[in-house]
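Fold this complex.
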Amino acid sequence: MNRADLESLAQREQQKQQAFRCRILCCASTPCLSSGGQTVFDTINAAIAEHKLDADVQSVATGCMGPCSRGPMVTVQELGKPDVIYEQVTPGIAQRIVTEHVAQQAPVQQHILPSDIPFFAKQQKVVLANSGLIDPEKLEDYVARGGYMALGYALREMTPEDVCKEVMASGLRGRGGAGFPSGLKWDMVRKEKAEKKYVVANGDEGDPGAYMDRTLMESDPHRVLEGMAIAGYAVGADQGFIYVRGEYPVAAKRLERAIRAAERRGLLGSRILDSGFNFRVDLRIGAGAFVCGEETALMASIMGRRGQPITRPPYPAQSGLWGKPTLINNVETFGTIAPIVNHGAAWYATIGAAKSKGTKIFALAGKVKNTGLIEVPMGISLREIVFDIGGGIPDGLEFKAAQTGGPSGGCIPAAHLDTPMDYESLKALGSIMGSGGLIIMDERSCMVDVAKFFMEFCTDESCGKCVPCRVGTVQMYNLLDKITQGRATMADIDTLQELCIMVKDTSLCGLGQSASTPYSAPCATSWMSTGPTFWIVTALRASVNSMRSRSPNGCWLNKETMRWQL
Amino acid sequence: MAVVTLTINDEMVSAQEGQSLLSVLREHGIEMPTLCHLDGLSERGGCRLCMVELEGNARLQAACVTPAAEGMMVHTHSERLVKYRMMILELLFSERNHVCAVCVMNGNCELQYEAAKIGMDHVRYDYLNPALPMDASHERYAVDHNRCILCSRCVRVCDEIEGAHVWDVMGRGANSRVITDLNQPWGTSLSCTSCGKCVQVCPTGALFTKGATVAEMEKQHDFLRWILDGREKKVWAHGNGK
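Structure:
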């Protein structure tokens, strides 16, 4: 296949789709599947067959449409009319969608989700542009929406150096959390002299409450593959690995199919699009260790070794897989590459904040009315995300905190609701951008419990290689447990703080170094008096004090009362 | 190989480029506590006792896995570092059931030695007291997981020197444990050559020779140097053995 073939394939597929009077899109990503999406899809297919509408109605199992808590989602696309989105579709409603809306042009009003609500209006879809609109298991659907054009363009019209420069000019930063400039990393790998280089996509997303990467891989797997192929061309690699965590079977299945389909069409493998460029992609499934999201541990896992991190430097860009230069990026980073090549770096650089360009996908979870997957321009304020897109806190309760960055991040209190969501602002607050998990807590959440939950997570997920993380996290967890049970003393808080700083300073990898980020207060500088760190330490102190004091009627203060106070 | 000059505790020293910082420190008589490092084995960087401060680097670095570089300014015994080393040792003692009074290695144990040298006389953290088993199924040696500090010297010596790779680590975090042959009893291991190298490199009393009682065990690391010298001189290379 060459570029002309690709374009004619796209045209053929577009014509095929336009021949249908109506397309019914059913979300088939994990959240909707788990709430009965498959039955809904089957019912729609049966109803279409029943009404003999096969010729002018097409049903498509697509990726994520966004408002996951309202699933299963169904979208009805009709020629010349705006899309109609249905929420919480049951098989009964699915039947009515076909019989009333499609067959008789009478939409089922009470289940329509208005498409002009802030949830959609404030978003800007760049990486998720195809998500919810294409069948992730059909290569043709992706090609019909301009897929693999960027790869074709890069291979013919750009040198590898041009591609690196373009990515650098776009201002794209690593979406895994640390925010290292992607173009710089690509250029470092490109400049290394080696007979073999590798490209690795990190899809081992493990933060509690985060599912951005899963959704991207499930909804638009070809976009990730295209980004990887462009990266392979830019850095001079002919082998890519995509590492998916074992808990994502749907994503792994769709990626595997996508790789095979792309290979059959000559979009991956040898002589891609009739150029001299070869690039193979292999899938690697993780075995469920959080630490394998750390790049050196991930590479150890790909090589079949125990998933444990090693000391950097040397960085993977110099010595990665089997000692060869390796480019390792998050899948979301790779997902951003095709739009950058298609529309140009200048276009991408207009989106987002001064130092954090582009859009970011967040998995909005916790105590907000609209939970789900959102893609917003960076620099949007936390308030807009929580109160406009998220629709505010349910049950008339107060907002208490937003947890960003998973176990390595921190909690942002209400006083900082106007913080722009970009790498620098979040870092200044003592939290991190992280991979995009965003858990909203209302006034009933106890911060000490939150701290304990995340420490328990780190205790479970520590690989056991270095002593501070292996034993330190257990000791810190025990101290937090003591506090929540009301058995702690003020001396325990000092011990806890001392341990936090030691584990942070001496641990080998990011897991241990950031395990105590939420409460290692004395390391903090300017934001200490207002920042979230101080806040949690205050909560800890208050917790110890109040748990040790007796209430007027002589019994210990119960835990529910505590929750409301802290 | 090029020579580099670096400053260690305000004193200028020279070293080979690429030489590990730990070996430079030892060459210059600076005592660095280590538990996972052993001359002749690959570096692990896991015990975090040899952490040093490098000026201009916000993070502490483990000397064993940091190559010496030109112009490095190294501090090895700052107040913070000594405090951290003490805390790491306390954590190690709190992790498993290290009871010196009944240990075969009492008096010869590297963990005990490092703790005594740094002046660690009590543990401020709660003992975790895990319930751990022993495996005495091997006819000559036994492993007591209560005394293991997971330094992985046994794993490395068996893999890198003996070439049998009987030992490995299973589990994660505090549940990690060294195992033989996919967690089968040591005595039933078909890959074990019973060479005893693992026992000799073990810093504590976790691996010991059967029949030894309290404070009777002493371990010999010299064989490693002897094997490695032989390899370097190619004494055992094919056709050179005589």
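Chain A has 23 helices and 14 strands.
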